[in-house]
Specification:
Structural class: alpha+beta
Shape: globular
Distance between the termini: 45 Å
GO molecular function: GTP binding; GTPase activity
Radius of gyration: 27 Å
Low-confidence stretches: none
Strand order of the largest sheet: 13-12-15-8-7-16
Number of helices: 10
Helix content: 25-40%
Number of strands: 27
Pfam family, one: EFG_III
Largest sheet: 6 strands, antiparallel
Keywords: GTP-binding, Nucleotide-binding, Protein biosynthesis
CATH topology of the largest domain: Rossmann fold
InterPro entries: EF-G-like_DII (IPR053905), EFG_II (IPR041095), EFG_III/V (IPR035647), P-loop_NTPase (IPR027417), Ribosomal_Su5_D2-typ_SF (IPR020568), Ribsml_uS5_D2-typ_fold_subgr (IPR014721), Small_GTP-bd (IPR005225), T_Tr_GTP-bd_dom (IPR000795)
Mean pLDDT: 86
Oligomer: single chain
Protein name: Ribosomal protection protein Tet(M)
């Protein structure tokens, strides 16, 4: 996928049981390949390398293998030998050739092998499977997707090597929303991967351990068409029409979710002012952007309070072009775009503390608040903590302070978002007859 749509790729990765990472035999490992592989390793998804386009002229597989070892991982096991032009054949290695590669990565097996002891096929298979599912060994297969070379073998490998991360023995329901989409009829559709249990039509299901929703309609996708169903099982993807489900919402028991490290999405880099070509379509444009940003959180927008311009934030040119096409084709709104500008961020350079006291100008409120702000390393984001006891200042007041800090960080001294700092709520004072959390 293009880097502008990396967030969508990351969301999809989070619900996979395994991945096939394609590498062009002609072009080798690309920058985007490295980004995707890094994400797969971080999340902990077993991965097979598939060297594609081996039927093109001028292919040197030894160079591709070296490229993989240098840029991705040296822990690869090449499962096939390939005869290139003019014969073009892909054949599995013999067992002994495959096991040599597995043995070299295990000190115990290597010592046993060099001492002349017999290695059982079962322990070799188990070693390969363990390392594959631990993401410390990556099988390499070959073929041409376009000309159906090596594909049957790859499908067989997928069915044998990958197994589901679902809890088939569990009766408790657990599922995660990984995609939001709007249909042509403007239905809001939530795509959910089920990890355990069975979801039935008319079930009442708890969302992220909070409110419950009733399942009134359920769909699955068959050949790109939505088909109604009345139940869905662990391991399946189900589609619900619902206004309240959000990306990463969890249905049922959150403890049954696979424990995977979260990948942070890249932040938008550019912003621009947009307006409809027809001024009377302004409300239509805002409604359309609301739906699009709901599906893609990396596409953000707001209305400037001073100029009333619609400001759109995005990752790159390709994402902007796709958004314009979507607005025109799906929502029938053409837009005019001003020159994009780079989005800057503000961060503190040193620690500072300050307290605003009750009724001391310019504070008109019946409350005192003391905060400290300290810089953090790049990429840390905003961290918040409170050292004010809940026994003294109850949760509603604490929440109001935290919300005020979040709002304040949206616009720093120079008008940009504030990031990479730790903010501590250190002191609070209020007058109970007059003070309110608002």
């Amino acid at each position: 996928g293009h880097v502008d749509f990396l967030a969508e790729v990351y969301r999809s990765l989070s619900v996979l049981d395994g991945a096939i990472l394609l590498i062009s035999a002609k072009d080798g490992v690309q920058a985007q390949t490295r980004i995707l592989f890094h994400a797969l390793r971080k999340i902990g998804i077993p991965t097979i390398f598939f060297i594609n386009k081996i039927d093109q002229n001028g292919i040197d597989l030894s160079t591709v293998y070296q490229d993989i070892k240098e840029k991705l991982s040296a822990e690869i096991v090449i499962k096939q030998k390939v005869e290139l032009h003019p014969n073009m054949r892909v054949m599995n290695f013999t067992e002994s050739e495959q096991w040599d590669m597995v043995i070299e990565g295990n000190d115990y097996l290597l010592e046993k092998y060099t001492s002349g002891k017999l290695l059982e096929a079962l322990e070799l298979e188990q070693e390969e499977s363990i390392r594959f599912h631990n993401c410390s060994l990556f099988p390499v297969y070959h073929g041409s997707a376009k000309n159906n070379i090596g594909i049957d073998n790859l499908i067989e490998v997928i069915t044998n090597k990958f197994y589901s991360s679902t809890h088939r023995g569990q009766s408790e329901l657990c599922g995660k929303v990984f995609k939001i989409e709007y249909s042509e009829k403007r239905q809001r559709l939530a795509y959910i991967r089920l990890y355990s249990g069975v979801l039935h039509l008319r079930d009442s299901v708890r969302i992220s351990e909070k409110e419950k929703i009733k399942i009134t309609e359920m769909y699955t996708s068959i050949n790109g068409e939505l088909c109604k169903i009345d139940k869905a099982y662990s391991g399946e993807i189900v589609i619900l029409q619902n206004e309240f489900l959000k990306l990463n919402s969890v249905l049922g028991d959150t403890k049954l979710l696979p424990q995977r490290e979260r990948i942070e999405n890249p932040l938008p880099l550019l912003q621009t002012a947009v307006e409809p070509s027809k001024p009377q379509q302004r409300e239509m444009l805002l409604d359309a952007l609301l739906e699009i940003s709901d599906s893609d959180p990396l596409l953000r927008y707001y209305v400037d309070s001073a100029t009333h311009e619609i400001i759109l934030s995005f990752l790159g040119k390709v994402q902007m072009e796709v958004t314009c096409a979507l607005l025109q084709e799906k929502y029938h709104v053409e837009i005019e775009i001003k020159e994009p500008t780079v989005i800057y961020m503000e961060r503190p350079l040193k620690k500072a503390e300050y307290t605003i006291h009750i009724e001391v100008p310019p504070n008109p409120f019946w409350a005192s608040i003391g905060l400290s702000v300290a810089p953090l390393p790049l990429g840390s984001g905003v961290q918040y903590e409170s050292s004010v006891s809940l026994g003294y200042l109850n949760q509603s007041f604490q929440n109001a302070v935290m919300e005020g800090i979040r709002y304040g960080c949206e616009q720093g001294l120079y008008g940009w978002n504030v990031t990479d700092c730790k903010i501590c709520f250190k002191y609070g004072l209020y007058y109970s007859p007059a003070s309110t959390p608002a």
